[in-house]
């Protein structure tokens, strides 16, 4: 079938590369903290437009686009790694290595798009582009532990596509964003493109802007704004404990009092009198107190520590962090041999289980997330629909004054939309917030400030479509589409007869049990190809 003609055929290779660089740098502007939503659609449209007609290496074009996208959006990695390793060379090397790894996914999207587009009608090419991008995000989110950051669906909380997130999730919203972007590139007139783009970029939260004034539970979120150095400094520890206790005293009487990740840096087992005192105060004022604090576990050989959300007062249970941060919280066994070559300051935590008993406040269960776990939607869905709101605690002081905390808050907004739950975000260094089930931030503390955020939330028992079905609809669409594309490609290249009998016989012979049957299948396929070429 004929594919669409791209004006990128008329551009010089250098001009294509420059345009690709600009489009890659434009994509992060569609995410937090910039929120320039049209940039996301224009960037993807340009990338798609270049891929349609460029005669250069498709893998190289995709890799270059990824370097620009991830290089600008993930620059905060250098700040964190430099703090951990205390050396510029190692931090820069690891940052570049991770950015290049992430860029491989956009490179593969470009490569497979170039391979499969030849046999499809132009009306189906946007679906092919969106399908490949979505699959790349899915693989990136789980491969080698997963890195589900900067997914296109997160940025849709600011668009009309926010309305689809409770139904088809982050991947589904990103899939639609890709289709829309590619379709914009194929529209014939500039006026149509502009109108279509402006329509999509209307903030979706406008349609869901009402928030009840009187809610069931009052909340106090404590934001200590401790520096990374002071948190783990013995001399500053006593002052830190006094400051935390003072802020808890100030918040007593609220239904929920939430502290961020490792707000108290010494394990709960070694602070028994202090924790008991806080618990007695919380019980006396009917408050549920949720502490970010390590938990120690002893065995015959040594003591292990887990990063935990620990409940006292009118709350019970604990949640141990499952998804640990590489280098920051653990070092894989196969990398320990390299630690002798560079200084590394890291905590050695052990991961909690995948399935844990839900923490309860006032006898109501809720979803517990610590830092990086917010990005893993399976971690959230495993605690639903039982969990009636979300508590997400983190400490982003390691990233300093970068864009990372804003990106994390946008992910939190998307999670509230997906699950239809209120969310309490407690962050040590700023942007502690309360988010509605519609993804709205109703109250928030500024970045790099100390304070207490007072707000209200409502427990919710109902389930969104995504909570019930997860990503199953998106998986089904992708599987059916790719199966059809593969069949179409094989058929157009002459590997399948009109009746389809060759496909069945050859596949059965090739996949049949035993070397002999597979050999027959290979011979049959080879003879068929030779016969068709001789006829031509």
From TrEMBL:
Q: What GO cellular component is one of the record's annotations? A: plasma membrane
Annotated CN hydrolase domain residues: 217-459
Q: Taking the first listed entry, what is the main subcellular location of this protein, grouped into a coarse class?
A: membrane
In terms of Gene3D superfamilies, this protein maps to: Carbon-nitrogen hydrolase (3.60.110.10)
The answer to whether keyword Lipoprotein applies is yes
Q: In which pathway does it act?
A: Protein modification; lipoprotein biosynthesis (N-acyl transfer)
Which top EC class is named for this enzyme in its record? transferase
Topology of this chain in the membrane:
Multi-pass membrane protein
Q: Which InterPro entries match?
A: Apolipo_AcylTrfase (IPR004563), C-N_Hydrolase (IPR003010), C-N_Hydrolase_sf (IPR036526), LNT_N (IPR045378)
Task: Write out the annotated subcellular location.
Answer: Cell membrane
Keyword set for this entry?
A: Acyltransferase, Cell membrane, Lipoprotein, Membrane, Transferase, Transmembrane, Transmembrane helix
PROSITE patterns recorded: CN_HYDROLASE
Q: Specify the domain of life of the species encoding this protein.
A: Bacteria
Q: Name one Pfam family in it.
A: LNT_N
| EC number, UniProt record | 2.3.1.269
The residues that cross the membrane are: 31-52, 59-78, 90-116, 123-147, 159-182, 194-211, 466-487
Molecular function GO labels: N-acyltransferase activity
The signal peptide annotation in the UniProt record is none
Biological process (GO) annotations held by this record are:
lipoprotein biosynthetic process
Family to which this protein belongs? Belongs to the CN hydrolase family. Apolipoprotein N-acyltransferase subfamily.
Outline what the protein does: Catalyzes the phospholipid dependent N-acylation of the N-terminal cysteine of apolipoprotein, the last step in lipoprotein maturation.
- Alphabetical list of NCBIfam families matching this protein: lnt
Q: What is this protein called?
A: Apolipoprotein N-acyltransferase
- Supply the gene name: cutE_1
């Amino acid at each position: 079938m004929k594919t669409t003609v791209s004006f990128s055929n008329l551009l010089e290779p250098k001009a294509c590369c420059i345009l690709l660089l600009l489009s890659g740098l434009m994509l992060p502007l569609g995410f937090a903290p910039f929120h320039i939503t049209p940039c996301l659609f224009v960037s993807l449209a340009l990338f798609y437009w270049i891929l349609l007609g460029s005669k250069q290496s498709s893998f190289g074009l995709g890799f270059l686009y990824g370097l620009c996208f991830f290089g600008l959006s993930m620059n905060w990695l250098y700040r964190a790694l430099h703090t951990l390793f205390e050396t510029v060379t190692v931090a820069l090397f690891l940052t570049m290595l991770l950015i290049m790894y992430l860029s491989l996914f956009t490179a593969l999207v470009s490569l497979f798009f170039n391979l499969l587009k030849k046999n499809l009608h132009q009306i189906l090419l946007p679906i092919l582009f969106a399908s490949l991008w979505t699959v790349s995000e899915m693989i990136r989110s789980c491969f080698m532990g997963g890195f589900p950051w900067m997914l296109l669906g997160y940025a849709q909380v600011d668009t009309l596509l926010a309305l689809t997130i409770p139904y088809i999730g982050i991947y589904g919203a990103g899939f639609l964003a890709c289709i829309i972007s590619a379709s914009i590139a194929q529209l014939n007139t500039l006026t149509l493109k502009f109108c279509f783009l402006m329509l999509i970029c209307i903030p979706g939260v406008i349609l869901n802007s009402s928030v009840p004034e009187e809610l069931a539970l009052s909340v106090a979120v404590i934001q200590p704004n401790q520096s990374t150095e002071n948190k783990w400094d013995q001399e500053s520890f006593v002052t830190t404990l006094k400051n935390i206790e003072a802020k808890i005293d100030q918040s007593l009487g609220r239904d929920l009092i939430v502290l961020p990740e490792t707000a108290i840096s010494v394990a709960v087992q070694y602070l028994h009198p202090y924790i008991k005192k806080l618990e007695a105060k919380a019980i006396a004022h009917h408050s549920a107190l949720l502490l970010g604090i390590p938990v120690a576990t002893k065995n015959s050989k040594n003591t292990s520590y887990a990063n935990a959300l620990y409940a006292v007062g009118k709350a019970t249970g604990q949640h141990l962090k499952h998804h640990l941060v590489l280098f920051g919280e653990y070092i894989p066994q196969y990398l320990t041999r390299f630690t002798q070559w560079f200084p590394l300051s890291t905590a050695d935590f052990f991961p909690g289980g995948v399935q844990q008993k839900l923490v309860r406040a006032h006898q109501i269960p809720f979803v517990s997330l610590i830092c990086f776990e917010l990005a893993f939607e399976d971690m959230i869905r495993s605690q639903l629909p039982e969990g009636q709101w979300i508590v997400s605690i983190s400490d982003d002081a390691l990233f300093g004054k970068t864009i990372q905390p804003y990106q994390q808050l946008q992910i939190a907004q998307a999670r509230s939309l997906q699950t239809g739950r209120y969310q309490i975000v407690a962050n040590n260094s700023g942007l502690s917030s309360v988010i509605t089930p519609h993804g709205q931030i109703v109250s928030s503390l500024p970045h790099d400030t100390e304070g207490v955020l007072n707000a209200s939330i409502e427990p919710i028992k109902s389930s969104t479509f995504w909570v019930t079905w997860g990503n199953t609809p998106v998986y089904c669409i992708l599987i059916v589409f790719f199966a059809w594309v593969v069949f179409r490609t094989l058929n157009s290249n002459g590997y399948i007869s009109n009746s389809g009998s060759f496909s069945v016989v050859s596949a059965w012979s090739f996949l049949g049990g035993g070397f002999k049957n597979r050999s027959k299948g290979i011979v049959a396929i080879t003879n068929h190809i030779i016969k068709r070429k001789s006829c031509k």
